[in-house]
Amino acid sequence: MGPPPLGRGPLADLAPQDGTDWSVLHGTTPRGAVLVRPDGYVAWRSQDAVAYPEKTLYDLLAGLLDLV
């Protein structure tokens, strides 16, 4: 069984909710990023902005998909 979905209640999901600080929930700063798999697992997290976001995303997905 995976981690509970974000949000409140048994049917919570990733939909934004008023008053929710998503950066705190994800363990990042407001400039950070999180890649969440469809099953709710965090595949990658950056606490702050990265220097080359397009290259970072490309490299990350290539590695996760075993394309390298």
Walk me through this protein's architecture.
- A two-stranded antiparallel ribbon has the order 1-2.
- It contains two helices and two strands; from the N terminus they run αββα.
- It is α+β, with helices and mostly antiparallel strands and 68 residues long.
- Helix content is 25%, strand content 13%.
- The mean pLDDT is 79.
- The relative contact order is 0.15.
- The protein has helices at residues 22-26, 53-64; strands spanning 33-36, 42-46.
- It is flat.
Which regions have little confidence, pLDDT < 50, spanning 5+ residues?
none
For the largest sheet, list the strands in their spatial order. Answer: 1-2
Oligomer: single chain
% residues in beta strands = 5-15%
Number of strands: 2
Average of per-residue pLDDT values? 79
| Number of distinct helices | 2
Major sheet size, sense and barrel closure? 2 strands, antiparallel
Summary?
This protein is of the alpha+beta class. It has helices at residues 22-26, 53-64, and strands spanning 33-36, 42-46. The chain has a two-stranded antiparallel ribbon with strand order 1-2.
Question: What are the key terms here?
Answer:
single chain; 68 residues; alpha+beta; two-stranded antiparallel ribbon; 2 helices; 2 strands
